[in-house]
Amino acid sequence: MYSSDEKYEVVLKSATHINMSNWQITKTLDTMTMVNNKFVILSIINNLINEGVEKKDIFVTDKSFLISTNYKTYFENGNKFWGKQKDIVKMYSLGRLISMEPNEDIFRMNCLFEFYKKINSITNKNLKCRIRSIYLADSYDILFNESIEQAYEILLEGAKNQVCDVFERHISPDINKRDMIIKTLENQKDLCLERSRKKFKKMMTDSRKKFTYTYNRFDRPVVGVYHPDGHYMEIINADQMYKNGEESDTQIKLKKITKNSPVAIAMLVTGPMVAFLGYLLYREHNVNSQIDTEDLFDIPQNDEGAINNILGSDDGNLLDTDNVKEVDAQVKEMAHYNLNKLEIATNKRVVHLEMNMENEITMETK
């Protein structure tokens, strides 16, 4: 009952004395989608930790993914980025990486991408061009075997060569302007290195708190795994980003919105969200259903128990089973925060919650 591999029709009906405006309907749908996606990510993270992936290799970026971008060009060849010429700029564009625990490799990557951002802004301002991705890829290749300074130097030399190439194509090149740009680029190396070391060392020291804060703050976080054996990254929620999640198996699907009084929002839900909604249905609402008394006693009596059951079982089952894995404390903390968002969206003073397994009896609330 109420497990991740089941699909339910979930209906939210506005309370009879409170009608929902258009913006409230939109906000409710956005919140349900956000909470659903975040529970999916937390389930994946917990599974990875239980499979032996080190927490220091799990990261969130400091940029939320955009609903105005379908990310087709990002993930048309899969969800792994290897740091080569064809995908290094995609890695950079995702944002700074914040790991669950301190990670020296991720610290180095943040430092390199910060330098690229800085000198890229200089060439863009003066020459209206971006530094070629091959130079960033070359510096990334040596980043983990050599010093950060050497990686900076390779990127800097590539940028200077590109500036020279641009001016060599001019019929009457402005040598003074060329030298000024090159000098400006050179001056950024030591300054950016010092600032980046200080900034990202602090971020690395506070990584646990920073990861949780960033994950909770963003409605659409980008989460991935860094693979130190090949120095590549894998985005674990790429399906939520690709084509705006249209092809994701765990994405909420809107069935219909009825604007008669009361307003009714019908959705198809699967994944961990099913069990969390089932938990709130029995905890917060009076339910008319034919449920076995034995199963009723197995329903968790508090949020902690629900999170342990749902995120700790292979099938995301709400009921207490013997097949339960440990739920990481940090994952649990973020799950509590996410569950609170779901509680607000399904507040029984504002909406009535109904759940109906496809082709089965409706679970109605009073």
List the keywords:
366 residues, alpha+beta, 2 domains, 6-stranded antiparallel sheet, 5-stranded antiparallel sheet, 13 helices, 11 strands, 14% strand, elongated, disordered C terminus
Question: What does this entry show, briefly?
Answer:
It contains 13 helices and 11 strands. The protein is of the alpha+beta class. It has a 6-stranded antiparallel beta sheet, with helices on one face. A 5-stranded antiparallel beta sheet has the order 3-6-5-2-4.
Explain the overall architecture.
There is one protein chain. The chain is built from 13 helices and eleven strands. It is an alpha+beta fold and 366 residues long. The protein has two domains: 8-45 and 245-365, no CATH class; 80-235, no CATH class. The strands form two sheets. It has a six-stranded antiparallel β-sheet, covered by helices on one side. α1 runs antiparallel to α13 (329-345), α4 packs parallel to α6 (148-168) and α4 (104-127) runs antiparallel to α7 (175-205).
